[in-house]
Amino acid sequence: MANLDPIERIGIPPAPVRVGRWHLKSTTRIVAAIGPEATKEKQRLAMARIDPHTRGRTPRSRCSQGFLGLVRGAGGQGLVELILALPVFTILFFGIYEFSRYYSTRLRIRTAVAEATRFAATGNSLADDDTGDPLSRAQSIRTAILRNTSHFGVTSGDISLNPPDGGRPEEIVTVSLDYEYEVAIPVMKKVLGTGVLDFSVATSMRNEPFYP
After folding, report:
1. Domain ranges of the chain
2. Is 80 exceeded by the pLDDT of residue 93?
3. b/e string for 14-38 if b means 16 or more Cβ within 10 A?
4. pLDDT, tens digit, 9 for 90 and up, residues 110-139
């Protein structure tokens, strides 16, 4: 008996206690085996067999610890970094979307103005959609633009011609359009400080030697 471990002398198995919910029950068995009259030294030696990371308590999962426990844990740093970076990535994503929409709108309006200017240079005219009567050159140029840009909210008053009648043969004609682009995403309105972006497009071309 002299060579036995102090734990073995009091009847406690030397094997480590299981990890999990049995910690508390194992602790109870150890204390019961020692007896209420046991000395503090024996209790200390008995408790040494318990997992030092749990100290006889049932370890709680991270989910049961709640949000504060998750933040304080090993993964809490990544969670805090995600919360801080999320607004930046959100603004960046919406900014890319809004810029793409703005650039696409401007490109399509510029293409429509260029096509109308090329049409004006030929000296041709269009027919009225309702009556079929031929339109003037100035009206034909505006109609050619509106057919391609009406879904953007462009009106005839946004279009300017110089000369106003479309010009004579071999005269330079300039077609311009003023447009107000409305920002679609409320977040970008706050970032840009305004919900409207103004831009103008213009195309100049020399008329062909047509017969008026």
Report:
1. 6-59, 95-206
2. yes
3. eeebeeeeebeebbeebeeebeeee
4. 999 999 999 989 988 899 888 888 899 999
Q: Round to whole Å and give the CA distance between 166 and 14.
A: 104
- 127-140 burial, b at 16+ Cβ within 10 Å, e below that, comes to eeeeeeeebebbeb
Residue at 176: amino acid letter: S
Q: What share of the chain is helix, strand, coil (3-state, %, to 5)?
A: 50, 15, 35
Residues 6+ apart with CB under 8 A from 202: 113, 174, 175, 176, 177
Taking CA atoms, 209 is separated from 124, 139, 164, 169, in Å, by 12, 20, 18, 5
CB-based contact 131:145 (threshold 8 Å): no
